[in-house]
Amino acid sequence: MDEILYIDDDINNLTGFKFAFKNSYKIHIANTPSEGWDILRQNEIKVILADQRMPEITGVEMLEEVAKQYPNVVRIILTGYTDVNDIIAAINQGRIYQFIQKPWDKEHLKVVLDNGIDTYNLRKTNEDLVRSLQDSNKNLECEVEKRTQEINRQKQELELHKNHLEELVTTRTAELEQAKIKAEQSDKLKSAFMANMSHEIRTPLNAIVGFSSLLAEPTTTSDLRDTYIKFLNDNAASLTVLIDDIMDISLIDTNQLDLKRDHFSVTSIMMERQDFYQLKPDCNLHIHFINSDHPEELILFNDGVRFKQIISNLLDNALKYTDSGEIAFGYECRESDILFFVKDTGIGIEEKNQHLIFNHFHKVEYPNRLYRGTGIGLSICKRLVCMMGGKIWVESTPGKGSTFFFTLPYEHIPVELPVRKNKSLLSSNFEKLTILVAEDDPINYRLISDILKRTGASIHWAQNGIEAVDYIRSNPNLSNCIVLMDIKMPEMDGYEAHRIIKELNPEIPVVAVTAYALTQDSYRIKEAQFNDCLTKPFRAEGLLSKIANLF
Ligand code: ADP
Fold it and tell me: Sign of torsion, CA 472 475 478 484?
């Protein structure tokens, strides 16, 4: 039921009103304005009626106050005729809704009250509408705020992403730039290497071609002949070193270089190297192996051949880059490794080059002097030392000299090394031996037979695999026979001939003699179970020691 409040100081008016309308509305009555306020606070009053003349306050004043606190409540004044002008003014100012003159007519008042309730309901609906509009507005604002925050967050993320991308692009660009510089450098290095290599090959070749033609001149005296032969030997040796280095580099680059570990005497290699360099006729430097007085022989378990190659390379360099003074080399035993060094008093190396010289093809060029070399020796040393379990580095002062250091792991395993034979192999005596030389190239055969002739061995020549097999087949009772088997021959190659010979007589040792020096070849030769292998080019000592080792 709609609720109505009536305030009047006359109790009879109140009861009369209540009685008249109690069936149509829920009627609240108040005898004073303060009672009226209490009712207003506790109920949903839609229409309030107030008497104009009350002792404390006029009806219009009271309703003005109500309008401030409950603006939707429809306010009606009940009044006698005398106050009409004041009340009309109040209606015009919007402070009250309507006035009813006493005594009121029930029917008329009912219409006014119903209209008042409709007005209240309308105001309320409006208010609810406005509120819900405000609420949805607020929601909208919240949503907008949320979306704005989300967009800001995404913007920040995008910003971060953009910065990260920019960083990535900068890094990648720098990396590409570096890679480009490296590629250009390596291109330049390779071109320089090719030019250098051509020079390094042509120089000894020129000497070999030139001096061998001079050697053939009938007018050449025997003294000159000895000198020319020495030149031929020296240049052939440097060509061999060059080819070995190129071989090593290509094996290293393709990870095919294998070490052959065994016990070897560092002391004897160092002593031998000291003698070798000191005896060089054109060497005017003092070369000193500083551990030569050491009573104990240093034995290592590693690749002795590669060790000799490293130390020889460092000594060759020391000699090449030192004009006067001395070269000292040796080792120091440390707790878990051996520190080797080669110290010279030569030209030294600027700090900026001290790392670079261990790279492939890196040569320091000097404007006033040409040093021969290809720039691969130290890069081979570095890789070998690394494979053997050590490190290599240099300390140097330009103009004063350099010291190259390298380490190798030390395992002390006591072993008995075979007694070194001092006798020259060139005076070997193989009188009791029959040597079958399977070789298709007449010059190479000539070289082998000339070396072997001095030993007294009986020599037979087979020009291909078939002839070699025929010789063994037709001499079934051969004893003390050895076969030197070239691998690449016409008709039947060395592998096939070796296989048949071993079937015919497994006791006969067969040494593969080959110009192939790649690891695959040595694997194939190993697999074929040759007794040994000799790589071309070889020297007389090399050939003779292979034969001596088999008997
Ligand atoms: P190269 O055949 O040119 O000597 P290496 O790889 O053995 O090649 O050496 C690289 C470079 O290191 C040399 O070109 C030289 O400039 C420098 N170098 C090597 N050893 C010495 C040394 N003992 N004294 C001064 N410079 C050296």
Answer: negative
CA angle 416, 421, 424 (to 5 degrees): 160
**What pLDDT is stored for residue 375 in this prediction?**
87
* pLDDT tens, residue by residue, 225-272: 888 898 898 889 888 888 888 888 888 888 888 888 888 899 989 988
Question: How far is the centre of ligand 1, averaged over its atoms, from the C-alpha of 191 (Å)?
Answer: 19
For residue 343, list its beta bridge partners.
328, 403
- DSSP per residue over 448-492, as a string? HHHHHHTTT-EEEEESSHHHHHHHHHH-TT--SEEEEEESS-SSS
For residue 353, count CB atoms less than 10 angstroms from its CB and return exposed for 0-12, middle for 13-18, buried for 19 or more.
middle
**Strand residue runs (E) in 163-289:** 262-265, 286-289
The span from the CA of 278 to the CA of 270, in Å, is: 12
85: its two tokens: 């002008």
H helix or E strand, kind and range, residue 319: helix 304-320
Amino acid letter, residue 434: T
Q: Which residues lie with the beta carbon below 6 Å from any ligand 1 atom? A: 317-318, 321, 344, 346-347, 349, 357, 362-364, 373-379, 402
Q: How many residues does the chain have?
A: 551
pTM to 2 decimal places: 0.54
On the question of pLDDT at 425 being above 70, the answer is: no
Tens digit of each residue's pLDDT (9 = 90 or more) over 98-141: 888 888 899 999 999 999 999 999 999 988 888 888 888 888 88
Residues 6+ apart with CB under 8 A from 63: 48, 50, 75, 77, 95, 96
Q: Residue 261: CB partners within 8 Å, gap ≥ 6?
A: 301, 302, 303
Please state, in angstroms and rounded to a whole number, the distance separating the CA atoms of residues 395 and 414: 33
| Number of Cα atoms under 13 Å in the Cβ half of residue 287 | 26
- What per-residue confidence (pLDDT) applies to 549? 83
End-to-end CA separation in angstroms for the chain: 135
Cα separation of 210 and 290, whole Å? 41
Torsion-angle region of 463 (φ positive above 0: left; ψ -120 to 50: alpha; else: beta): alpha
Q: What is the DSSP letter of 349?
A: -
Q: What tokens appear for 22 in the block? A: 């109690």
Residue 371 CA to ligand 1 center (angstroms) comes to 9
Residue 95, Cα to own-chain centre: how many angstroms? Answer: 87
Nearest-CA residue for ligand 1 atom 19 is 317
C-beta separation of 366 from 399 below 8 A: no
The SS3 assignment for 534 reads strand
Which numbered atom of ligand 1 lies nearest the CA of 362?
10
Taking CA atoms only, the protein residue closest to ligand 1 atom 25 is: 348
3-state SS, residue 380: helix
**For 259, which DSSP code?**
-
36 token code pair? 């009226």
Q: What is the pLDDT of residues 462-517, one digit of tens each?
A: 999 999 999 999 998 888 899 999 988 888 999 999 999 999 999 999 999 887 65
Helix (H, G, I), strand (E, B) or coil at 44: coil
Reported confidence tier of residue 2, pLDDT bands at 50, 70, 90: very high
